[in-house]
Amino acid sequence: MCHLILLTPVFSLVVFWIWPLTVAGPVYAFVVALSLWMYALIMRAMRRPVLGGAEEMLHSVGEVIEVQDNALRVRVHSEMWNAESKDSLHRGDHVKVVGMTGLILRVERLEEIDSDTPMHMGGSSV
């Protein structure tokens, strides 16, 4: 149903059957211009980054808060998460989220934080 908005210029061709060319031409030109403007807004919205959900968590940077045996607690986006890692991690290490299984994050050690790595930790330290 939402794709019908893309066909607005096609549906607007009816104005040529209703009105004379001197009226229908400018009306149709306005509809086409309005449609192109809407298409541009739609394309810009589709290119925006993900703002929520599991997709947003991927590649986020966090900090190890607690290590007990194989269980990790990390802070990402000001939230505490259970995590697992193949790396040997210690409290205070920075990690990068590489995946999610349910509500458990899979993380890797982040050797150094560069300016290209987005810092999504936020919040205050505990």
Task: Give a written overview of the molecule.
By secondary structure, this protein is α+β, with helices and mostly antiparallel strands. It has four helices and five strands, in the order H-H-H-H-E-E-E-E-E. It folds into two domains: 2-46; 54-109, Nucleic acid-binding proteins (OB fold (Dihydrolipoamide Acetyltransferase, E2P), Beta Barrel), CATH 2.40.50.140. Strand 4 and strand 5 form a beta hairpin. It is rod-shaped, with a radius of gyration of 25 Å. The model is unreliable at 121-126 (pLDDT under 50).
Low-confidence stretches: 121-126
Mean pLDDT rating: 87
Q: Could you say how many structural domains there are in total? A: 2
How are the strands of the biggest sheet laid out side by side? Answer: 1-2-3-5-4
Q: Briefly, what CATH class of the largest domain?
A: Mainly Beta
CATH architecture of the largest domain: Beta Barrel
Indicate the multimeric state: single chain
- Give a count of the beta strands, DSSP E runs of length 2 or more: 5
Q: How many angstroms does the end-to-end distance come to?
A: 49 Å
Shape: rod-shaped
Structural class: alpha+beta
Separate helix tally:
4
Give the CATH topology of the largest domain.
OB fold (Dihydrolipoamide Acetyltransferase, E2P)
Major pleated sheet? 5 strands, mixed, barrel
Q: What is the rounded Rg?
A: 25 Å
